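Incident log, structure service

09:12 report received: a user says their structure output differs between two submissions of the same chain.
09:20 pulled the input from the user's history:
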Amino acid sequence: MPSKTLQIPTADGQADAFATFPDGGGLHPGVLMYADGFGIRPVLREMARELAGHGYYVLVPNLFYRHGPAPVIELPEHIGEEARPAVFAQLMPLIEAHTTERVLSDADDYLRFLTTQPEVSAGPVAVTGYCIGGLLAMRTAAAQPGQVASVAAFHGPVGADGPDLFSKLTAEVHLGHAEGDMTFEALGELNQALDAAGVGYTSEIYPGTIHGFTMSDTDAFNPAALQRHWDRLLPLLGCTLANS
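09:34 re-ran on a clean worker, output below:
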């Protein structure tokens, strides 16, 4: 897949981003992909390329660009349990500084940039995200109901903003939860809130998973769950994006 590093103009400066899209020219539906808290790194580029191979232009912004270009913090090649405390000690101040106001301002800029790229077709886009990026994806879809046709979030704290967020959603939704993050009772409550808001959705616990199951550079990685993620994500995009 062709790929490049781009600079997205924002209200607070320039956000660096990774973009990838199918070879051979033509126009492709746009997908905004929010990384997990560890940010843009080889595994995220690999996942973006995998998605682009199915016919999409995928844009992965550096969420923490205000603190520097990616990688904002130094990461080990494999983020094992021993490394996590030191990594999170650096990450948490960045996550806490990334307020809802910043998220929504950035989302406006990211979508404006994505939809004006020469390789991106006209029409609605999709948003997907992992971990904290899943919550950002949901916030983006809720704030841009006319532009975001579908949203998918994996092992993300998607209920953090409560039912008020769900009531603003018009996008089709898939939520893939880690078994280690969500009880079946909590899943039932979340799904009831989505029902009450009239959201079109699927929401399920991926069996045998812990938080971070899609990320192959962590101890949480679960290959079967990563495949399940593709099996849910690709049909969602195919049904909601023009020219898919």
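09:41 both user submissions now match this output. Likely a transient worker issue. Closing.
09:42 reviewer note: Helices lie at 42-52, 84-97, 100-115, 132-143, 163-166, 184-196, 223-240. The longest strand covers residues 3-10.
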